[in-house]
Write a structure and sequence with these properties.
Length: 415
């Protein structure tokens, strides 16, 4: 289960990532559209300039001549534009405006040319008479610095706007993620409070029911056998319900701080108590229970809950180990952490179910679902995480399982 901080980070990354993807896609679309429009405008402008250059042409028997006093009334900007006239053999006859040294012969249509000094966008039209004979060519040119400057300005604007938008989206996403996580935590807290209150209220009538049925068995031994059996069933079911209520109460309180529950817990003594508690259960199932000697090291935490964690793991291992199998618990430690491994030669867990065994009230359809309410491992992991640790599982169907409890020698203090 994700912590609140992890969930908040995931939500923030989701918000920011989705918004960034939209912004990037939008920026790319705008950039491509702008470039296409710029290219269309350049082509139209150059074509207009080239055709205006034909207005200065006067056809002659030898070909054509150019009126050097006027180029059709069209002003050629000498700093950025050029007009060049070629004869039918594509030899340069005259030029106006910017006159780059181009050795490339003219080609009808738009062509981009590169000189030693700059790059040019050119557009060439053929000079044809009324009968369609080509007498030469007119090539209009324009430096691409202006278009590149406009595109560079657009790129800078898009990048700056995208960065600002992503930053704003991150801030807003962080606020939304915090609000969502806060609402989730409030819902969970209300649910925990309801579970705790309901469990606490149910303990009294269940205890009274079990006590009443037990007294009836003691005070009225002359009851019919059938009634006697029904009362025993009531006592048994009441005990099971009371245990389930206690388990739910533990889960509801599993997230509370350990600050006032920290005691020194000797690990070796705790494992010996767990061994004594489950020795008869293991013997009834014909399972060999081995509790390896633990070093006399102390850890800090709630003694009852630490013992409950190990007890649940051992009980779970015994429950799902076939007669003749083995359940063993071993302990190791280092400077910062303690590890208790509970191994069994039981039926194992399928890969798709390994993490689900820790879900509350989850029970598999196969033999692992036999017995219990499905809260033992949930309680063990919840209490382990309350102490700053966790439980990992390794298992293979038909071979067995290993549940490894890792606990810090001293749980971290609440923030």
């Amino acid at each position: 289960m994700l912590t609140s901080r992890q969930l908040q980070h995931r939500l923030l990354l989701s918000y920011a990532g989705a918004f960034a993807a939209v912004i990037v896609a939008f920026s790319i679309a705008v950039r491509l559209s702008f470039s296409w429009i710029i290219q269309q405008q350049v082509t139209a402008r150059l074509e207009t300039l080239a055709r205006a250059g034909t207005a200065a042409i006067e056809f002659t028997p030898q070909g054509y001549s150019i009126n050097s006093r006027s180029f059709g009334g069209f002003v050629v900007h000498a700093s950025t534009e050029s007009l060049q006239w070629f004869d039918a053999k594509k030899r340069l006859k005259a030029s106006a405006g910017r006159t780059p040294q181009l050795s490339v012969p003219p080609t009808v249509g738009r062509v981009q040319l590169t000189t030693d000094a700059s790059a040019l966008d050119t557009y060439t039209v053929a000079i044809a008479d009324a009968r369609g004979r080509v007498h030469g060519y007119v090539r209009a040119g324009e430096t691409i610095n202006e278009a590149r400057g406009a595109e560079s300005a657009l790129d800078f604007g898009l990048v700056a706007a995208s960065v600002l938008a992503i930053i704003a989206a991150t801030v807003v996403g962080g606020t939304l993620a915090s609000a969502a996580v806060l609402q989730r935590e409030q819902s969970y807290e209300r649910l925990r409070e309801f579970t705790a209150d309901a469990s606490h209220e149910l303990r009294t009538p269940l205890t009274a029911l079990a006590t009443t049925a037990g007294l009836a068995l003691l005070e009225a031994p002359q009851l019919p056998q059938t009634t006697h059996r029904h009362l025993k069933t009531i006592v048994s079911l009441s005990d099971q319900m009371r245990k389930l209520v206690d388990d739910l109460l533990i889960l509801a309180r599993a997230n509370k701080s350990l600050e006032r529950e920290m005691f020194v817990v000797p690990v070796d003594a705790m494992l010996q108590r767990v061994n004594r508690i489950h020795a008869s259960f293991a013997a009834d199932k014909c399972v060999n229970l081995l509790m390896h000697h633990a070093p006399p090291i102390p850890i800090f935490g709630n003694p009852d809950q630490l013992e409950r964690i190990v007890s649940n793991l051992v009980e779970n291992a015994i429950r799902y180990t076939e007669p003749g199998g083995t359940v063993e618990a071993s302990c190791s430690y280092d400077v910062t952490a303690l590890r208790i491994a509970v191994r069994d030669t039981g039926i194992g867990i399928a890969p798709e179910h390994r993490e689900r065994v820790f879900d509350r009230l989850w029970r598999c359809d196969n033999a692992r679902g036999d017995g219990g309410a499905g809260l033992g491992l949930s309680i063990a992991r919840a209490l382990a995480r309350r102490h700053g640790g966790d439980i990992a599982v390794w298992s293979e169907p038909g071979i067995g399982s290993v549940f490894t409890l890792t606990l810090p020698r001293r749980p971290p203090l609440p923030r």
